[in-house]
Amino acid sequence: MKPSTISRLVSAVPDSITQKNIEDILRLEKRSVHNRSGAEQLAETVTRVAGSLPFIVFHVVWFTFWTLLNLGFIPDVRPWDPFPFSFLTLVVSLEAIFLALLVLMAQNRLTKDADKRALLDLQINMLAEQESTATLQMLEKICAHLGIEYEAEEEQRLAKNTDVDGIAKKLDEKLASAS
User: Fold this and answer.
1) How far apart are CA 170 and CA 123, in angstroms?
2) Domain residues of the chain, as ranges?
3) How much is the pTM?
């Protein structure tokens, strides 16, 4: 969807509704942040720092400096980790292990949050579908009561309750046959 389309849709919604939705989203996000464990917060902080340009620049400078010192290019400094830099390899390997574990922790939390949002989205979609079905059923009754005739083939199908389990089963079958 284009930004201009989104702007029109948002501007078409009364400000009070938009404001309430924004407040609801912020409340859910605050609750999510508040419920994070100390380890999850640490993992997120380390991941955010490790994924930054200053972190990369620091490592380039650090490796360059380490290499220059240990190859003997700087006078009056005796190399303590001669080529092939075994100690540097150990330090970098340990750093990589811990960074990988912290990134996995952060990713697990992000996945958990995404799963919660998907379940919330599914619940809201199912409620919207049920509301639409109820609205169509009421419209059918109103039309029948007022004697208004209409071609209702598709509307009558839509006015029936949706078989969520049946749809899920068909989707599973289609996905299985496609792979």
Assistant:
1) 20
2) 1-35, 36-178
3) 0.63
